[in-house]
Amino acid sequence: MKDDSRIVKDVEWHEIETKKDDFGGKIKFRKKNHNRVFVKICKGVIFVLIAALSGGITGGYISSKKYNSAIENNNSSFFQSNKASTGVNNISQNPITRVAETVSQSVVGINNSNDNTLNGENSYSGSGIIFKSDGYIVTNYHVIKGTSKHLVKLSNGKNSKPFNATVVGYDAMSDLAVIKVDAPNLPAAVFGDSSKVQVGDTAIAIGNPLGNEFSGSVTAGIISAVNREIGIQDSSTGVTTTYNLLQTDAAINQGNSGGALCNESGEVIGINSFKIGADENVEGMGFAISINDAKKIINSIIKNGRVIRPDLGIIPEDYVSEDRKIKGVLVKQVKNDAGAQESGIKANDIIVEFDSVKIQSKNELQDIVNRHRVGDSVPCKVLRQGKIIRFNVKLLERPVFDN
After folding, report:
1. Rounded to 5 degrees, what are φ and ψ at 101?
2. Active-site pick, 81, 85, 257, 265
3. C-alpha triplet 357, 360, 363: angle, nearest 5°
4. Which of 106, 155, 175, 234 is catalytic?
5. Is there a contact between 193 and 152 (Cβ–Cβ < 8 Å)?
6. Which of 77, 85, 127, 142 is catalytic?
7. Which of 47, 68, 347, 353 has its CA 20 to 30 A from that of 156?
8. Of the candidates 131, 210, 115, 243, the residue with the CA atom closest to the CA atom of residue 178
9. For residue 241, how many other CB atoms are within 10 A of its CB?
10. Which helix (H) or strand (E) holds 341?
11. Residue 29 — very low, low, confident or very high, per pLDDT cuts 50/70/90?
């Protein structure tokens, strides 16, 4: 007899159907379908692969955008300072190299003379910084002082003809001057905020000393001190105006005067000056006019051709009584047609209070005057023959002098 058990196939329990009128049930059988299970597994694997691939692409795209954005933010100063510098490696790992490559194109050489013989290749007397792309250049006043002809050489134009420059104006008190060349689309530098500079920050000095063969010379160091106060005396009045300088150990020589002192972002934070602080100029000590002070002066020169400062109209001298109970400012001389003379102040008066502030030195007095504008009327107390007399002094414009 044939064994039928060998031909019985596996079945799976599928469903029991019951009826309301019947106590029994009806069992349905179907063949097990392996193909459907395989298809479901494949679909699941494909879904996982597609999800992983999509996630990877999306994540890569977002990471790339964030990285590029970070690079652009970190180097925004470089792109702003030289839009024409295509091909410059602005993402150099060395910040000094990166700054040098970019800012050097905004630093020029300046050659001065009083005649028409300006052909000497080694006669460059200083540096300048392109302040505005339409040709305005800032430099030190002592770089152009006493000369009538000025040639400007771009750092990227060694074989090109220098530009003739005209003097827009200068300010001997701050040792700053502005000249202009007739040339469009120059690579203007980016001027930063010197109030954010801290001791220990990287300092990069860029200038054009000694002519073409040394154009774009770069020295680097750190900021040794901020707000280093150095006074410059007005030879006509004896009054000293105090300026905030940045001190650095980056080498600043005579040819670097008028050049740029930069931070790691390629922003100009100071204008190098070999003359200011010359008495303290020793190895490892260089000075730059802080850019926040310089920008006000530069803008005033461009707008007015000079810096407009208020003036009290006296020749002052520090005063201390013999018993040291009275301190103030002795009026040695009153200038003609000045505010002090018009108000009634006389020689030998002792100014003890100005603008409601007690005065103990001529520099304190000048600092208060500098806070005002030309035309302001300021209350003043003077001691005259033992009596206090009150005046209102109208401040006039301070005459321009040439140290």
Report:
1. -60, -35
2. 257
3. 90
4. 175
5. no
6. 142
7. 68
8. 131
9. 17
10. helix 339-343
11. very low
Instruction: Name the residue among 72, 143, 147 with its Cα closest to residue 107.
Output: 143
Question: Euclidean distance between the first and final Cα of the chain, in Å?
Answer: 135
Q: How far is CA 360 from the centre of its chain?
A: 35
What would the pLDDT profile of 304-353 be if each residue is shown by its tens digit? 999 998 999 999 999 999 998 999 999 999 999 889 999 999 999 999 99
What phi and psi, each to the nearest 5 degrees, are found at residue 152? -115, 130
Tell me whether residue 386 is exposed, middle or buried, using C-beta atoms within 10 angstroms of its C-beta: 0 to 12, 13 to 18, 19 or more: exposed
Known active-site residue 257: yes
Gyration radius of the chain over CA positions: 38
Neighbour-count burial of 391, counting CB atoms closer than 10 A to its CB (0-12 exposed, 13-18 middle, 19+ buried): buried
What would the pLDDT profile of 83-118 be if each residue is shown by its tens digit?
434 344 455 468 888 888 889 889 998 988 886 554
Q: Catalytic: 21? A: no
- 386/317 Cα distance (integer angstroms): 18
What token pair was written down for 80? Answer: 């702003």
> Chain-centre distance of CA 209, in angstroms?
22
Q: Is 175 a catalytic residue?
A: yes
How is residue 172 written in tokens? 């001997």
What b/e sequence results for 51-65 when a residue is b if at least 16 CB atoms lie within 10 Å of its CB, and e otherwise? eeeeeeeeeeeeeee
